[in-house]
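This part of the workshop introduces the protein records we will be handling. Backbone structure tokens are a discrete shorthand for how the chain folds in space. Once this layout is familiar, the rest of the handout is easier to follow. The record below serves as our worked example for the rest of this section.
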Amino acid sequence: MEEKKDFQVQKKGTSLNNSGQGSSCIVPDIVAKNFNWGAAIFNIIWGISNKTYIPFLPCCIVVFIFNLLLHVKYMPFWVDIILRISFYIFLLCYFIYSGINGNKWAWQNKKWKSIQDFHKIQKRWAVDALIYCILIFILPVVILMYFFRNDIFG
């Protein structure tokens, strides 16, 4: 119960802003409960923008190690397949881990004007992530369907 002293009530219904104080600050429940799509999709860029460098290090290390392993000349086929599958499994787990902890990291490492400002900025990241996913995954399918419409629809 003593840990909650850092997050005190300032006025009726509002809270004292304790953001940007590092891992020692208490993250409000309203901030920590949401999945952060910006942290999940734009991992490194989001991390730099929010002064959160935690997502940067594991991603670079794993990409570097897997890149080295995948370029070994005489690697058996089954080892190559296992490495590639484990790489994508790691990326999926890392995507989920970053999304779950993104709001907590951003709150702890960057000073925010208010909780509303924090939510506004993180919502913008989420909208950008949605637009990016649409452009990367859905738009190519629509373009291919357009060019091959006679083959597809008869």
Observations:
- The chain has seven helices and two strands.
